[in-house]
Amino acid sequence: KAGVTQTPRYLIKTRGQQVTLSCSPISGHRSVSWYQQTPGQGLQFLFEYFSETQRNKGNFPGRFSGRQFSNSRSEMNVSTLELGDSALYLCASNPGSPGMTYEQYFGPGTRLTVT
Amino acid sequence: GDSVTQMEGPVTLSEEAFLTINCTYTATGYPSLFWYVQYPGEGLQLLLKATKADDKGSNKGFEATYRKETTSFHLEKGSVQVSDSAVYFCALTSGYSTLTFGKGTMLLVSP
Fold it and tell me: For B83, which DSSP code?
């Protein structure tokens, strides 16, 4: 079974631009979560999608948004980029059935650099 | 809210030494506990997990026991190898799958 894939792996953007990151979960997984990893703040939860609906959301400004498609693939978008948005963005998937707790399977991440 | 505290690193050991990385947590309800490992330039890999009190998770020689009375989930390995050099994250989830992570502990093993 193929693992979680994320594209692109590396991205350089300029302050004020917007960016879209993509994540393809493991086949059969319906839950996709996004995390931001920075040296200062560590790993922080952004949001989770299940069956095309946002099921949970972390404490990030509205510039961060996401969506999930019917094939469970997910995208996250960051508008009006700031220098502080430079980070490794990790996507994770799991089967996601309500009422069950699963471990997360992580992708390799997208390294975003904002200049 | 939920939180995880783990010892700061880096932890520097010689090959074949004993490893302990401390992890304590605060959570509402009855969390599931995890250790993840991150090698340079890669995403996170699940190392082991425990879902109820006194459960022992184990994998690749690593072990951790879910201690509800001390709210701890310390990671141990009897004999580390150079290839174990990585960053280790303790994490919990109190519901669904959203993970709360500790800050991470870097382990450096020298030959």
Answer: G
SS3 B46: strand
Q: Are B38 and B104 in contact (CB under 8 A)?
A: yes
What's the farthest any 2 CA atoms get from each other in chain B?
A: 43
Rounded distance between C-alpha atoms, residue B11 and residue A36, angstroms: 24
Question: Which residue is associated with the tokens 């949970």?
Answer: A56
Token representation of residue B94: 């109190």
**pLDDT tens, position by position, for chain A (115 residues)?**
789 999 999 999 999 999 999 999 999 999 999 999 999 899 999 999 999 999 889 999 999 999 999 999 999 999 999 999 999 999 999 887 766 767 889 999 999 999 9
Strands A110-114 and A53-57, bridge-based pairing: unpaired
> How far off is chain B from A106, nearest CA to CA, in Å?
6
What token pair was written down for A95?
């089967």
Phi/psi at B84 (5° precision): -85, -5
Residues in chain A whose beta carbon is closer than 8 A to a beta carbon of chain B? 4, 31, 33, 35, 42-43, 45, 48, 55-56, 58, 90, 92, 94, 96, 98, 101-109
Nearest CA-CA partner of A20 in A89, A84, A107: A89
Please, are residues B105 and B8 in contact by the beta-carbon 8 Å criterion?
yes
* Chain length of chain A: 115
Name residue A44's beta-bridge partners.
A36
